[in-house]
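Example 700, ligand nicotinamide-adenine-dinucleotide.
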Amino acid sequence: MAGEARYAVDDGIAVVTIDNPPVNALGFAVRQAIIDAMDRAEADSNVMAVVLTGGGRTFSGGADITEFGKPPRKPSLPDVNRRCETMKKPVVAAIHGFAFGGGLEVSLSCHGRIASADAKIALPEVKLGLIPGAGGTQRLPRLIGPEAALDVIVPGNPVTAEKALEMGIIDRTAEGDLLAAAKDHARDIASQANPPVALRDREDMLEATRQNPSSFEAHAAALTRKAHGLEAPHACVRAVRMALDTPFDEALAKEREMFIELMHGDQSKAQRHLFFAEREAGKVPGIPSDVTPREIRKAAVIGGGTMGGGIAMSLVNGGIPVTILEMSEEAIERGLGVIRRNYETSVKRGSITQEECDLRLSRLATTTLYEDIADADLVIEAVFEEMAVKKEVFARLDAVMKPGAIMATNTSYLDVDEIAQMTARPSDVLGMHFFSPANVMKLLEIVRGKESAPDIIVTALKLGKRIGKVPVVVGVCHGFVGNRMLSARMEETEDLLLEGATPVEVDKAFTDFGFLLGHFGMADLAGLDIGWRTRKALGKTAAIADALCEAGRLGQKTGKGFYNYEDGPRDGKPDPWVDTLIEEKARELGINRRAIDATEIIERTVYPMINEGARILEEGIATRPSDIDIVWVYGYAFPVGKGGPMHWAEQAGLKHIVERLEYWHGRTGKAVFAPSDLLRRAAESGSSLSETLSAGGKAA
Ligand code: NAD
């Protein structure tokens, strides 16, 4: 297995180097090569101890997830771990870069672990809808205790070497030459009279929890409180719990069974789909890979309101100095006040330190003068959603910004090409559509205008990633990808109320489907005036939502909307006033209200969204179905376990979706239900949306 794991002996130490670029994934050939190398080291009389390390920039990113869902090939990762653990000579894992998932599990089967100071470790399987399936749930509790193991396994987040040392996951950190330090560590262990006991044989760290299981249960409950319908976090807890009451080998076998069952389940398939989708989303057809991004050293944001403030926070959090331009000193103070309060809350919660808060605030400047932002490399406009205001802002930007500055608009719906025409340099203009709250939500729709230069798209993608967003490139149309699909369901939710459903029933159907918030709960949170203003601009109406706005009920911010928030923003109560309003409006429109069940609610709201998504693909507004999934999961909290609307549609069956759309189209005659050509063709041929697109559609 040349090239998959190198073997060399140096001064009594066998160094086994995993060599599978780019991340040393533990695919079949690597697994076999590690076992062969261990056999060789054990048989080699010149070897007293072994160091297991990774070639290139990292130890190991874990399992080769392209093998998931395929027939398993022996040796498995548990076989590799057993081989390391039962070696008669000590094995030390030398970790640099990262040891994630299976990578960390292999190191837990070694007799010692040493890491370079900037290394990171993690068991992130939960993020793919899985549990660690190669002993991690049994060995880690034996090393650091069951509750600390839950802290690593249930959230699945990376842990720094410093923290890992403090937790006892690694024995030492190395400042300089990791390999030399690892060899010394291996020699130390080999020369000990009582070498370390393999984790499989240790029980000492389990005893306290066995005596007091209630603290474990309370800890587990707190960690899984936000699992939101996902099975994997609960399965992680069940697996770790086995360490307390199930013999090691039996628990390992059960852990593997649980892992395989989850791997074949819909949720893990959906989460793995999203994992790949996120990586795909960064690839933009038609932009050569050698296009160089522009340098972004300083930025400006026009408008320091809800979005401008959040965008500025995202930028300064990513280390980019920002100047906010507002209309008046009062507006500046109002905006800065919100930003300061947000940071203070983060400090109080302990998510950032006071020093970090001060540092971030020090990167913020404000002004009312365009001259002050002229030398920014990037300016993001977030003023009122009115074309005339946006046009005026872009004309002024064109007059002052230095050559090469990128000019972005955060518009939700407006035509980016029309805005770009206000400048003499439309190739420097694009949309950067953040989601509210912009400092929290991960989605960034990068709107590529007709004339946007390739290098500004690449710059926006790079910047998006730098500030922790998940960027997706989309084309220009009313509402781009996310809001356009949202509009497709909006009209129907109003009609469901008029025809007989209550806001509570509609929202329950949504939360039962897996959304964090129901449609009306979300509308109240965002503010009903946003849709109201958009409808007015388009000459549209919505009987109930318009009436609520006219009554001053704009949602949470006014204490009332579809729900009543008098008991607090998180505690919206159904409001009889709204029920009466709905009944009156239905009567005025001559509608006989009837009982409406959850299936109908989902078919009439989620299915039109899928239909609109398919149209978006046909028009080339989104590149691939998985880009739409990313938009919905990261921008609108579509249930992660369903993988996004397009993935879910394929799981539910496109034929079924088309049949139901046709049914509702026949009953209502509404255009939102008329199945798109793409959906129809995919359903007829039995192919996926991607296959159907490449067979004769527009996008890739
Ligand atoms: P907002 O009303 O909270 O903030 C707008 C800010 O812009 C105000 O502080 C105002 O003083 C300032 N402003 C207005 N005209 C200006 C000008 N000519 N020069 C300088 N400053 C000016 O609005 P918002 O919710 O932050 O929305 C801003 C933009 O972001 C809109 O285009 C909106 O569609 C878009 N957007 C909003 C959301 C959301 O959920 N709120 C989400 C995504 C995108």
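Summary: Residues 288 and 341 are 43 Å apart (CA to CA).
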